[in-house]
Amino acid sequence: MRDYLVYSLYRLAGVLARLLPPRIVYWAAGWAGGLACRLAPRLRRTMADNMRHVLGPDATEAQVQAHVRGICTNMLKNYYDLLRVDRLATDKIQKLVQVVGGEHLLDALARGRGAIFVVAHLGNLDAIMHIPSVYGLKITGVVEHGKPERLYRYFLEQRTSHGLQLIPSDGPMIGLIRVLKRGEIVGLSCDRALIDTGYRVRFFGAPALLPDGAVRLALRTGTPLLGAFAERLPDNTFRVTVEPVLDPPHKSERDVDVTAGMEQVVAIMERHISRHPEQWTLSVPIWPDAAPTARTATEQPEGSESRPKGVPERQRSGQSASGVDQG
After folding, report:
1. Domain segments of the chain as ranges
2. CB 3.0–4.6 Å: which of 211, 236, 244, 312 could bond 200 by disulfide?
């Protein structure tokens, strides 16, 4: 009954999203974001902890809480955008999103190995993932298989309404390699591990377990790896910045190569998130107090390759490609 109620509320919100003018909804999100924070203390604490890491030790508690309210507001705006995206014509989406650095993507695709987007939950993740499709390019991502199932299917319909292909995070990832062999695009989020697998690296100065799927996939296939990040502008349109291709991969999955790739990914994410922390719409803890299942160098089985000095701890649980969580 609870799952059905949640699903019904989102369907109702979807109907309202099609009826209400955007300017009214965006205005309402301004005060509703603050209300949502007050009504969800656990969510507020999680976001505040994430913001303390991003803003650094010199940030005041007032600054932290102001950014948390901004995150809640942007989350509501993102849900509104998602719930109405299937009714937006292709040319309308193109007008809502300006792309900076698109030539970097075209140069990467010209190499004939496809391209891998490194993305984060910044601005509006759906804005990034829809852009290639509306320009006639094929893109595939990975989505968290959320619950209830009806709601997951409903969001899936919205997100794939303009040609985006999505693979559930609990399914086989071999499809991503097939996508790259066809010269298409894969988009993978690198700021949240969906399935408790990834690399432990320093992120905003503290150890965090982040997905290593994008880096490993690039190393395994020799595919160009480049960042793409969205920014919500004051008029609620978007700017998507496509970064130049990261250092060429070497078709190797040695720890030292994965570490080098992850350091590049972390640096580029930190740069973009630092510009607009209030638009980093993650509602899960990125810096947990402990990660008991992570394996350190001294815990490796006898005979295995030892971890070089400085290489982050690695935690894996069977799948190597964590992807785009758009839930």
Report:
1. 89-288
2. 312
